[in-house]
Amino acid sequence: MFAPGLPPTNFLPPARDENPLASLAANLNLNKRSLSPPDANSPEAKKQRLHHSMRMLKDEPVPEGYVRFRFNEDCRYPHCGYREHQTHFHCMRQDCGYSFCDKTRFVQHTARHERLDTLMGGDFQQYRANVPCGRAQCAYTSSLGSMQNKASHFHCLKCDFVCTDTNKVVAHRRQHAKLDSIAAAGFQKFTPSQPCGGVQCQHSGKQTHYHCLQCQYAVLGLAQMSAHKYRHMDT
């Protein structure tokens, strides 16, 4: 028998490594370390990301309409900033040649061409800042490849109009559509700066007007065109 509150004389405390609470705490710390996410900025993580990116560049197929050039290959684009020192891609369209090294640009750039093709409607030709348009008189030819000229420009295929604003492309196409309608009605448009050549035309050099291609009768608007057409239908 022993007195209450006092340990027996033969009592030995458990060894430190046999303490169940200490073992539990050690196990919890071990599990915490094993479950914690790896450091994204560690050298090993960076090495794995680089290896993965290089493998993706090497193995993934290039979408149609694009071509890949490796860091030691000459892409032969004279104004390309990645030429012969970085693996990159080029758009193969003759009026483009856009270069990039980020694979996410494939979808973005393809969507850009689809949008511009819709805006141009086959009436314009687009040329990027580093692509020659082949027109010696073009104001943008002299600044080809310069740092000041970073915008694409657009040439109208029906006249000499050129611009860099897609809004002007749409507006100019509307003008041609109107002229096509006027020509289909049998008339020709003349602006104040375009002498019509009519000897007795009171509108020549003064205001926009339209001449009938059959009798040279002059009108000022579409309503008069419609009324004049019936004269020729009756004859």
UniProtKB/TrEMBL annotation:
Parts of the chain that traverse the membrane: none
Region named Disordered: 32-51
Keyword Zinc-finger on entry: yes
Keywords associated with the record: Metal-binding, Zinc, Zinc-finger
One Gene Ontology term from the biological process aspect of the record: regulation of neuron differentiation
MF terms (GO), sorted A to Z: DNA-binding transcription factor activity, RNA polymerase II-specific; RNA polymerase II transcription regulatory region sequence-specific DNA binding; zinc ion binding
CC per GO annotation: nucleus
Domain C2H2-type, residue spans: 89-118
Protein name: Zinc finger protein castor-like protein 1
Native organism: Harpegnathos saltator (Jerdon's jumping ant)
